[in-house]
Amino acid sequence: MNAPRPTEPAALCGVILHPAGHTRSPAMHTAAFAALGIDATYLPFDVAPHDLAAAIDGARALGLRQLAVSIPHKETIMALLDEVDATARAIGAVNTVTRDGDRLVGSNTDWIGLTRAIERETPLDGKRAVVLGAGGTARAALFALREAGARAIVLNRTVERAEVLARELGAADAGPLSALADHDHDILIHTTSVGLRADESPVDAAALRPGSVVFDAVYDPPETRLLRDASATGARTIGGKWMLVHQAIEQVHRWTGRTPDADLMADAFDSAG
Questions:
Q1: Among residues 24, 73, 74, 99, which one is catalytic?
Q2: 241 counts as catalytic
Q3: pTM for the complete prediction?
Q4: Which CATH code, of 3.40.50.12780, 3.40.50.10860, 3.90.1150.10, 3.40.50.1240, is assigned to 11-108+243-271?
């Protein structure tokens, strides 16, 4: 009797973050893999900052095919990879690590996700935009705006960090969050952690502009205080869900060369809530 032929194990992918909390990435990627007929498993990995180097060594040893990278690792992971592509270097943050042979290559799909999310409501070209925050998502936002031909201003609680981002990513100006009322804008992009509680907003509602588009990278709660205030002011609003959906679509494409359906990913996102 012939022995059964061994089957190739499912590809292993995942997301590294800390604290792990509740992430919807596994649900979205699992749905995409199933729809595309890809034999892969996607897991969340809670990796504390002091364990990041060991985790990347483990990813190499285990043959992980792709890792999504979330807070707080998007900048520090860059030094641990074999290559970081030009876009991720320009942004200064990596949110995607893909295996290429024996090499781990860092890239950034956040800026694509953010671009596609906002362009559900308005094109970016020629618009006046304000970015709130100075972390990895803010960096991706400023890069996206620059690439699309928008004029950007960055505001942050710590003004010095905003000034650094403005210099590095070509924003026209920088200042404190309280300066929003001084800047006319077509698009407002919020990237800070303020708003994770439903009663918080990073800015005064009086500073919001009727007719503008307001994007909030916070996705839980799905309707933040900022989005409620913006809607009441007469602005159009976009929740953080759509950035996550579109950046995940691009991640799958970069690994497999195939593009999952956006509605499928959005449904998986909602089901994981």
A1: 74
A2: no
A3: 0.91
A4: 3.40.50.10860
